[in-house]
Prior knowledge:
Layout: E1 2-6, E2 12-17, H1 41-52, E3 59-60, E4 70-78, H2 82-91, E5 99-106, E6 113-120, E7 127-130, E8 139-140, H3 148-161, H4 166-173, E9 185-189, E10 201-208, E11 217-225, E12 235-241, E13 244-246, H5 249-257, E14 305-308, E15 311-314, E16 317-324, E17 328-336, E18 339-354, H6 359-363, E19 365-367, E20 391-399, E21 405-417, E22 423-428, E23 434-440, E24 443-453, E25 456-464, E26 470-478, E27 482-484, E28 493-497, E29 500-503, E30 505-515, E31 522-535, E32 544-554, E33 573-577, H7 601-605, E34 616-626, E35 642-649, E36 664-669, E37 678-682, E38 704-705
Parallel strand pairs: 3-4
Antiparallel strand pairs: 1-2, 1-35, 2-31, 4-5, 4-20, 5-6, 6-7, 6-8, 9-10, 10-11, 11-12, 12-13, 14-15, 15-16, 16-17, 17-18, 18-19, 18-30, 20-21, 21-24, 21-38, 22-23, 23-36, 24-25, 25-26, 26-35, 27-29, 28-29, 30-34, 31-32, 33-34, 36-37
Region (Disordered): 538-561
Keywords: Copper, Metal-binding, Oxidoreductase, Signal, TPQ
Enzyme class: oxidoreductase
Amino acid sequence: MWLLRLAWPLALLGMAATSDPSPSPTAPPPDAASIFADLSAAELRAVRAFLLSRPELGLSPTRGGPLAKNTLFLVELLPPKKRSALRYLDRGGPRPQRQARAVVFFGGQAEPNVTEFAVGPLPRPSSYRPLRFKGGRAIPFAARPMTQREYELLHRAMVEAMAPLERLLRDATGFGYGNCSRRCLTFSDIAPRGLAPGERRSWLVLQRFVEGFFLHPVGLEVLVEHRDPDPRRWAVRQLWYNGQYFSSPRELAERYEQGTLAVARLPEPPARQLFSSYEPRGRFSTGTPTAVHGARVCEPQGRRYRLRGNRLEYGGWSLAFRLRSSAGLQLFDLRFNGERVAYEVSVQEAVAFYGGHTPAAMQTKYMDAGWGMGSVTYELARGIDCPETATYLDAHHLYDADGPVRFPAAICVFELPTGVPLRRHFDSDFQGGFHFYAGLEGQALVLRTTSTVYNYDYIWDFLLFPNGVMEAKVHATGYIHATFYTPQGRRYGSRVHSHLLGNLHTHLVHYKVDLDIAGTGNSFETMDIRFENISSPWSPGGPSTAGGATGVGDGSVPSGGLDPVLVPRRYHLAVTRHHENEPSSSSIYNQNDPWEPLVSFESFLRDNETIEDQDLVAWVTVGFLHVPHAEDVPNTATPGNAVGFFLRPFNFFDEDPSVASRSPVIVRPLDPPTFSRLEIQRWTPDTPGPCAAPEPFSYNGTYRPV
């Protein structure tokens, strides 16, 4: 049995393994992990070239030109069906054909739509076929994610629409939207884009374009209708300025010219040490040094993990991994000492629900898979984002681009000293001495990437511990999504700077955990603890004592540590049967059509199927309520803003499997009670050796077509 423990009090899940009538698994082929590997740059180019060569698709280049055209938006691996993969991995069956998932925007036809295709076989594709969502629904064109081209056209539309407001903007902010040189305004857009299916109306928050512009709203929000593929038909539908609504830019401009407008005049931003920047300012009171390097991770005798392609091995652990452009890290074939624990553990979605007084704030419900959460995996900085000693891996994405784009150092792998022993004991003799001391240093292997979804940065970790425990964790950092301060807004957040409101919001992250423990036939149990009063058997008739008892309830959902009133979700955890047409709990289309989502997680649960001795999937939701405060400036800090869950063995092994580690230290006295001679047992070299200084810090930060 394995235990899935949520990072909240008293939230437990037991997965009880049952016998699997299938033959015992064999060792997987040496390159088995590659069936789950992301598409190479060459494969991405081959898929694009093949689809562009098909005249019936009528595809045009993605960048530039009109929106009313057919374009290839996304290409990524289409993972093999689970049944085919297991037949290959466990029973020596045929290797699954390698295929791509391709997303095409058909905007150049009478009835625009979005269609997904399976393309293969790779590396030389020769055919394609449509992919269907559960229920067979078509993908509405209005549900498509935003593209760089649509943003360019939105900017052009805003330049024209803001022309009547140029004097107001320059007088109030010192910045302009049109011909502005270095003192320009920009905008952040929010979603969902409307209030009903088929709409595409975005509220845009205008900000000064300075370092950390997310914290520099100027008090103007603009609602733009941009549903039509022809931008000449786009229009500003409404504006909000400093607490008031206006029907058009002209109305707002006239109110300003008449002197009847409450103008929010902003102070000139300083040239240095802007509050939204990372530039040091102030001093710590103790005077302890900060202008020197702090502690570092080192590997004095080399790496203790093995990385071969997308196969990662560490201690008893082995797994395959990939970085989906659509949603991020995905683990496959997770094993401990050769036995599969999970077929898949993956990030599904990250959402943030906001409250506020401004229209943009009250409308904001971000679903980050719709913003290319897995494709915004920018370069990790050595020594900051990951240790200098880490292994860094590049990623290639074909997302809203005319070819694969290389993201250098997008993934890192490193062994992390946890700073706390994995286990230890001091066996006192209670007379000033001891019988023995034993301890095992605490370390874990970390697989990490980040997603910078506009203002927020998510740090995604999977940690592997030597005792058979796996942890999935996400840290939230980056800039808060903030709006212009008004007195009415204080009901929905905190005033974090003079003209800035940090809006109350809830972060929720969804994971898929497809556990296959001792086979695919698993059952689901929760274990609850209750107290009962019993008479002491050794003292009949005496006072009662509390005896613990466990109550096991099949299929119930555990409680969590978040107030359900504040968190708009139904389940901390849900368990369903595995179905090939339910690969993900969300989609890149749900953000812009949440009212009739292409993937409705609720439909996974309506089947009301038995979950006893079946191939089961656990869907885990973790999250936290974020009440922004002044200390979120310039960025939200990672301490206290991390959530996750653990997979832990529960009577699966005969003992703690970390006893196989050669890293413990045992100390025994040879001459008690004098304790002048000690026997020190260790299975590693006596001294770890020096930590060599790495190369000077360097950083590139570019991501280019390849």
